[in-house]
Structure formats: structure tokens, C-alpha cells
Amino acid sequence: MNKELIIPLTSKKETLRELIRRLFLVEKLNNKFGFGLLLLFCMLIAAVISLIGVKEGMMIIIGMIAIPIVYGIVAYPKFGIFVYLSMAYLLMWFIKIGVNFPLGTVMDGMEALFILSLFIKQKRDKDWSMFKGPVSTVILIWIGYNFFQIANPTAESRLAWVYTVRTVAVVMIMYFIFLYYITTKLIIKLIFRLWICLALFGALYGLKQEYIGFFPFEDAYLHSDPGIELLLFIGGVWRKFSIFSDPVAFSYNMVTASLVCIGLMTGPVSRAKRIILGCLVVIFLMAMLSSGTRGAYVLLPAGVILLCVLKYNKKVLLALIIGAVMATGIIFVPTSNNTLYRFQTAFKPNDDPSFNLRKMNQKRIQPYILSHPLGGGLGATGEWGKRFAPYSYLANFPPDSGYVRIAVELGWIGLFLFCLLVFTVLKTGINSYFIIKDPKLRSYCLAAVLVVFALNVGNYPQEAIVQYPSNVYFYLVIAIIGVTLRLDKQQNKLLDAGK
User: Fold this and answer.
1) pLDDT digits over 144-158, tens only?
2) Tens digits of per-residue pLDDT, 288-331?
């Protein structure tokens, strides 16, 4: 057994101190000179931004920290994971601010560095055992199928494949990176804390857009294209998108953060922490409502239903009944409030013209899906389809659904493989939840299962897993499901050995 995979409970503080030391590249936490340099660096950043502007300042800052981050990712991959997760969450915000830098390529480069680090470590340790299992097998099959699409004879453009495969298949390799380098409960705890903090920033930013207004660069973006105004200006109100690419990504990330908090509340946490987590759920849901995304409104109830099934008891059943009665009243109460009306239509889809239009589009494309088992090629629809094959049949087809996009681009074979992946992950996660004995690890596993389930429910009305940060965090929670079971088994072996 790899000794690095187990860190005694007594060394948690030392591990946290070491993580912070690596994060700030300081030799000792009590080194006043080191913290003085850190403070001086922060002051320098503020001065640069105030003198030359946000955009130019960001470029200089990125250049200053690039070399130590590259070294940190290769030498300390666990530190790199936190940087990568932060970048994935803030990437679209940086782009909207106006950072004129290929940030998508930076993410690709970080993924390449993680892979390099993994192979360097494996050359010494040669332990591939943790990668075995049904989830890893299906993910490898799915990645292989996406790469096979370069030879799809019905594909109209190879360039569309090049641009799309990065965020659909290449990012899935991070599952193996997470699975390998997340080795302790402390790392999982820190990851969830980082996630919640980033989500809180996104929620408060969205609420600022709702109640105070947009920044000038955001207002310029909203009026840069008539198509944007058509999509985001509904009923005399702008849909909010916070730091994300669009309102859909904003709302879905608020729901997943809420489910993470709910999952953690089921673990061994103090009453004060439960209250804090509950307040965070309220903030996330308030922010989600400001997005005006109907597809997101059903995700939390779906996740709560799964939670009630997994933790079935009389109290849970009573709470579910009370919640259902309250939700029914909210859905059917007459209202003139535009936000509440959009919430109600999410549960009455047949009264929604946009939902009926989507059903018509899906009916129209069914013959194409049945006659093209390999699909029309990765990237055949949407932005890349319009750019690289504007003359094709699929270029102007609006999939409006993650599952429909898969069926159209990757065929019914691809749709089957993706559904097999989802089924395997959920089955493994639910089984792990009942197997795990450690209550903290069990709550981590439950939070991950709820996120996977909600994102796949949301993948039907919208595309839930193709945009940053959801595409990264989706494979993160899949890895956490495997890690929690592995850590629990290791703890049980240690306990049995000590008897």
C-alpha cells in the first residue's frame, strides 16, 4: 500500500500548514519575513492595477505567477488541483472582464502538466491499482469513443472536433488526476470549502447584478449582440449570469453548491455549521432565481427526493411531505411577479412555448439520429458548427439539451455510452454510500452523488456538463465518490490491524 495515501488523524494541522506553506511558497508559516514578502506582493498588485488598469494589471500578474504555478503543479500536484479548480470557476469571469489571453489554452496546459506529473510519479511508484473499477473503465471507453470521432465519415468538419474535444473528452482525464492525488479527508474537506467559497462569491456577484446593476463591461457585453439581448432580456428584466458564461451555467452552479451544503449537513457537523450551511443554501437559491433559468428550478427538488430515498426515515418523510405541500402552493398560487411566474412554468412545461418548441425540434431530428449511429461529428452543432461548417444540416440545429446534443453529434451509440457512464457512476455512488462506515466520508460521498444526479437531470432541458466550471466539477465529484470509498476501506484496515 502506498504510504502517502494515509495520513494519521493527528497530523491534520501539520498537513494544513504544509498545504498553506506550499500555496504561498513560504518556508515557515511563522516566518515574519516570508509573510512580509507576501504582503508586499499584494500591495504591488494593487498598485499595478490602480496605475495601469485592471486588464493590463491582470496580464502582468498572470505573467508574474505563471512560472511558480507551473513548478507547483508538477512538483506539488495537490496544490495544483486547488489552482486548477479556482481557475475553472473564475475562467469565464476573467474572459468577460477582458483579459486578452488564451485562458482555455492555459487550462489545457495545466491538464498536460498534471498528466506529466502523474507519469513521473508512476515511474517511481508504479501503482495503478486505484484506477481499476467499472467507473474508470466506462470513462476510458467514453474518452476513446470521442477520440475515434476524428475518423467519423459523416462529420462535416475536423476542426470542429479539435475545438470541442478539449472540453468534452480531454477534461475527463482530470478524473484520474483527482482520483490519484486526492488522498485524505482533509483534501476533500478543503476542496468542498473552496467550492463553497467560490460559489458564495458567484452568488453575491449575481445578487449585486440583481439589486445594484451591471458593471460597465458587463453592460457593453449585453448590448454587443442583438442575439444576447434576445436571450437574456425577458419580460422587461435582464437575466443574471454572475461570473459565469450565461444564466444557465450560473443557476446550475448555484444548485450544485446548494446540494453540496445539504450533503455536508448530513454529516457529523456542529449545530453552528449546520446553520451556516443552511444560510448558504438560501443565498445560493436566491441567486439562482435571479438567473431566470427554468431548467434549474427542478434540480434541487430532484436532489432532495434522492436524498430522502437514501436517508429514508419518518422525520425525512414528514419533511418531504411538508416541503411538497409548500412547493405545490407556490407552483399554483396566482402571481404577477415575473420571477415567480417563470418558476411556476418550470413545473408546468406544457404551458411553456419554449419547451414545446424544443419538443418539436427533438421530434424533427429523430430520423437523423436513427440513421446516423455515429452522429454528425463532435462539434457539428452550436458555435463550432456554425463557424466551421455553416452549410451543414446540423450547423443551425439548436439542441437545447445535453442528451440531444450527444445523440446528434455522437449518434445513438454515443448516447448509449453516456447513459451507461451515468448509470455506472450513480450505481457505484449509491452502493458506496451504504458501504462507507465513516460518517464524514459518507456525507462527502452523498454530496457528490447528489451533484451527479442533479446535473444529469439538468442535462435534459439544458446543456449542463460542457461549460466551465461544470465540466470540471462533474468529474471531480465522480472522483470523490471513488476516493471516499477507498479512504474508508483504508481506515477500516488500519482499525482491524490495530485490534
Assistant:
1) 999 999 988 888 888
2) 988 888 888 889 888 988 998 888 777 777 777 777 777 677 66
pLDDT at 70 (0 to 100):
76
Model confidence, pTM: 0.83
- Region 410-426 average pLDDT: 95
Count of residues in the chain: 499
CB distance 403 to 360 below 8 Å: no
| Distance of alpha carbon 226 from alpha carbon 26, whole angstroms | 50
Q: What are the respective helix, strand and coil percentages of the chain, to the nearest 5?
A: 80, 0, 20
Chain centroid to Cα 107, Å, comes to 14
Facing residues of 128 across strands?
none
Element (H, E) at 387: helix 382-388
Could you check whether the bond before residue 469 is cis, i.e. omega within 30 degrees of 0? yes
Residues 85, 147 contacting (CB under 8 angstroms)? no
Identity of residue 333? V
CB 404 within 8 A of CB 423: no
The residue ranges of DSSP E strands in 141-203, in sequence order, are: none
Q: How many CA atoms lie within 13 A of 465 on its CB side?
A: 27
Instruction: For residue 189, give the amino acid letter.
Output: K
Contact residues for 269 (Cβ-Cβ < 8 A; gap 6+): 277
Beta bridge partners, 233, equal: 238
Torsion over CA of 88, 17, 22 and 184, rounded to 10 degrees?
-50
The CA distances from residue 342 to 144, 289, 352, in Å, are 40, 9, 9
Packing angle, helices 299-310 and 314-332, rounded to 10: 160
Helix (H, G, I), strand (E, B) or coil at 26: coil
pLDDT band at 7 (very low <50, low <70, confident <90, very high): very low
